[in-house]
């Protein structure tokens, strides 16, 4: 049964809502579930600070809630209070940058920026995700192949600390305490734990910290000019081998900002909605900024011929509406997977692993060998192959398959780490995957991270259970 919020004290300003802790605040897109005593929805920074101060005084854990699109349980409370940032939705657009509240959606930010001829480069799959959530996980997405993850595009943050104080931090402002250098993996994408290094700045410390060090309430974000012309295509291949060789051949192409992969099982799931994919065994979605090169389109004819692609069956975008159709094609896959998971009645088991580029084919071969052996009919591989970061999704249909899938994901994680890869490339670890931190880092590295956590949040109240095992919850 739902746990109802207690009445707010009279000293709370009117711009704070407190309401029943409905189911929507107690789960995320993965289906991970939790519980809480109260949900608080501040409408101003002052109200948010007051709520955090009250929780600090009473030693009550706080879980920061974004839009719920995460897949690792990071916003799902395991007791204490939920602090939703949904009302902090301010968006201001300037030349070259934006200021956005933590509750603003990526969709609204992109729409506002587009009106001024600009765009925000990070491109997480789900545009209903909040700015605060994308900062908490150092989200990236399909355009990271050219532009990198969220971290590269944050200029400043406003953060409420665990004691309720409000601080502003600009890029380049160093932290005022010593930390060791923690070696990061060689993968192009990584978002697991704190990327500690001597002299690092505050902005980098908070990005990717998954709500465990402070509450990000506003961000100043870099905007880029809209490209003059984009070429987008979904290229189908008669074999997986040809698709993978094409990726290796195309990575160096100038202006390429996206290389996305769909295996045969992924296309099988998409065929009811997109029947034109029938003849294909694999597909690559690419997007390129042409940068005034009128001959580049002609070069693609040779590239497709050399790659052995199914040229006549492939799709090319000639308008914004076509590009939106391709975006729906890309986004339809995780939606279809989630629908199938709900019908199966078991949570999907998914990876967010990345390896160095030169280990990409080796890791894919390992995935395929194990999946063909154990889950030949209920697994898919898709995602950001340009960065050697694909998502493996296993769709269990029984408890035995669920248990076997969890064991296999640990085996995959160990293999990834042995290749100097990352166990969390863009989603963070949250609560569901916090156990992977000890595979990525040494005990000494993790203790150094915990020391930073204790320094900024000595009562261990913020984001309990994210990244590190949680002490007992109130």
Short description:
The protein has 474 residues and is α+β, with helices and mostly antiparallel strands. It has helices at residues 45-58, 106-114, 131-137, 144-147, 202-206, 240-250, 264-270, 296-307, 320-344, 360-374, 399-418, 437-440, 443-456, and strands at 16-19, 38-42, 62-65, 81-84, 91-94, 97-101, 118-119, 154-160, 166-170, 215-222, 224-225, 230-237, 256-262, 282-289, 315-317, 349-350, 379-384, 389-394.
Detailed description of the structure:
This protein has 13 helices and 18 strands. The protein has 474 residues and is an alpha+beta fold. Residues 1-14 have low confidence and may be disordered.
Keywords:
alpha+beta, 474 residues, disordered N terminus, 19% strand, 13 helices, seven-stranded antiparallel sheet, five-stranded antiparallel sheet
